[in-house]
Write a structure and sequence with these properties.
Blueprint (H helix, E strand, L loop, with lengths): L1 H24 L3 E7 L18 H9 L1 E3 L2 E2 L5 H10 L24 E2 L7 H6 L4 E5 L19 E4 L15 E3 L2 E4 L7 H15 L5 E6 L20 H23 L6 E7 L21 H4 L3 E4 L8 E3 L3 E2 L3 H9 L14 H4 L11 E5 L2 E7 L2 E4 L2 E4 L8 E3 L2 E4 L15 H18 L13 E2 L12
Parallel strand pairs: 1-9, 1-10, 2-12, 3-13, 5-6, 5-9
Antiparallel strand pairs: 2-11, 4-20, 6-7, 7-8, 10-11, 14-15, 15-16, 16-19, 17-18
Helix pairs in contact: 5-6
Length: 461
């Protein structure tokens, strides 16, 4: 009898030890929270005073602020294509829609090519459960929706919340099926949050990836009764404070599921704010290649891995998420060339860790600026494009030292001809690979395309 008891005890200990080893060997979880039109200074940890964001501020206190973190575009669709693929929009032909407008619209025939490899598809090779909740905006045809891009499931609005059409009411979609149209936007943030929290608890015993592209603070602005009218910054602040609450609920769920210490959470935005928010001390706004259009707040948290209360000013970007998460998961990179790089040494606070050597700023098909180190060169253009409306006209080259002048107010081009020459060479490298205007780049690939559009419509019972 004693021998049987000892045998049972030994097997129990062995099973526990094997479970411990399996948990240790399991790759980490990842959650990417991606706001829509959030300004650089719209979070407390980035300088906001009237908008209260205690949960995201706590993330920063427990993690790292990335202060030179860039989106690849000043508008929605192109920036999202880059986060998902690690590629500049021009590489994957997502810099314009089928009519050469700056974003995709309902029933567009164009979308992110299913042949491209997304973060979700990269992580699926390592057994990850994957979820997308929120604003998709890289194609609403079934061929382009999240389940064709590596996500096990999807719940959200497939494009911007101002794209409510009489013929295509703004849809709330689960996978491919419209479950509500037009969607009640006052409850959308809380519903997104519920989906993510449920997924965390359901997936706690396996590695998981959550991509949460929030609908707000893109206009029109809505908040639930709990948050409506509560912010000192009006409805705009209400939506951000509700997103902050949502972030807190997600962090709480990680602790409840006992996966907090094995989960990297990254919070950022698709571009700068347009009107209602603050991009200070940066110049410019959404839709522009000034810093305020594309430099966005970014906070990364991973207890025990990312140094608490740290910050880093190296050049980093949404381009870098795919290769960084792939490295941490032990997954291979896509077969096709990408533009991102692994920045995990920066996140882990390794001494001497370097970011990107250069970064390109495109306005749709037009290369407008390049950055290398502290220097940013706005290129001389015969006709500088806007994302909407008539071009600005002819503009001269301008050079700014972003370390000393982050507001891009003092042109130093005349005093630094050697720097201008070096950055012009970088611009030419961008043109050769990605193109510029009518000039094609050798590294460009085709977007997805369908002959017959298929908008997301509510089906009759």
């Amino acid at each position: 009898m004693k021998r049987k008891l000892l045998l049972c005890l030994g097997l129990t200990i062995l099973a526990g030890w094997m479970n411990f080893l399996a948990a240790e060997e399991r790759p980490p979880n990842f959650i990417v929270i991606f706001c829509d039109d959030l300004g650089y200074a719209d979070l407390g940890c980035f300088g906001a005073e009237e908008i209260k964001t205690p949960q995201i501020d706590r993330m920063a206190a427990e993690g790292m602020r990335l202060t030179s973190f860039y989106s690849t575009s000043g508008v929605c669709s192109p920036s999202r294509s880059s986060l998902l693929t690690g590629c500049y929009p021009r590489r994957v032909n997502m810099h314009v829609n089928q009519k050469n407008l700056c974003v995709l619209f309902p029933a567009d025939r164009k979308g992110l090519n299913p042949s491209e490899t997304t973060i979700a598809e990269t992580l699926k090779t390592k057994g990850y459960a994957t979820l997308c909740v929120g604003k998709w905006h890289v194609g609403d045809h079934p061929d382009f929706l999240p389940h064709k891009q590596g996500f096990d499931s999807y719940f959200g609005i497939p494009y911007s919340n101002d794209m409510n059409r009489k013929e295509v009411p703004l849809p709330l979609v689960r996978n491919e099926k419209v479950v509500e149209a037009p969607v009640d936007q006052t409850t959308i943030t809380s519903r997104y949050t519920k989906e993510v929290v449920q997924f965390i608890h359901a997936s706690k015993d396996k590695p998981f990836f959550v991509y949460l592209p929030h609908t707000f603070p893109h206009v029109p602005l809505f908040a639930s009764p709990r948050f409506k009218g509560k912010s000192a910054r009006g409805r705009y602040g209400d939506t951000i404070e509700e997103i902050d609450w949502s972030t807190g609920e997600i962090l709480k769920a990680l602790k409840e599921a006992k996966v907090d210490e094995r989960t990297l959470v990254l919070f950022t935005s698709d571009n700068g704010s347009k009107q209602k928010g603050s991009n200070l001390p940066l110049r410019g706004r959404k839709g522009q290649t000034w810093e305020g259009g594309q430099r966005v707040p970014c906070v990364a948290r991973w207890p025990g891995k990312i140094p608490a209360g740290s910050e880093n000013g190296e050049i980093t970007s949404t381009l870098d998420l795919l290769p960084t998460l792939a490295k941490l998961a032990g997954a291979d990179l896509p077969d096709k060339p990408i533009d991102g790089q692994d920045v995990s040494p920066i996140l882990f606070g390794e001494e001497g860790a370097k970011g990107r050597e250069s970064f390109y700023f495109y306005q749709m098909d037009q290369l407008q600026c390049v950055r290398a180190g502290k220097w940013k060169l706005h290129l001389a253009l015969e006709s500088k494009k806007r994302n909407w409306g008539k071009p600005e006209g002819k503009v001269p080259a301008q050079l700014f030292d972003l370390d000393a002048d982050v507001g891009e107010s003092k042109d130093l081009a005349a005093k630094n001809p050697a720097v201008v020459k070096r950055l012009l060479a970088i611009a030419e490298t961008a043109r050769e690979e990605l193109g510029d205007g009518g000039r094609q780049g050798k590294g460009q690939r085709k977007a997805g395309w369908v002959e017959e559009p298929s908008p997301r419509l509510m089906q009759s019972p």
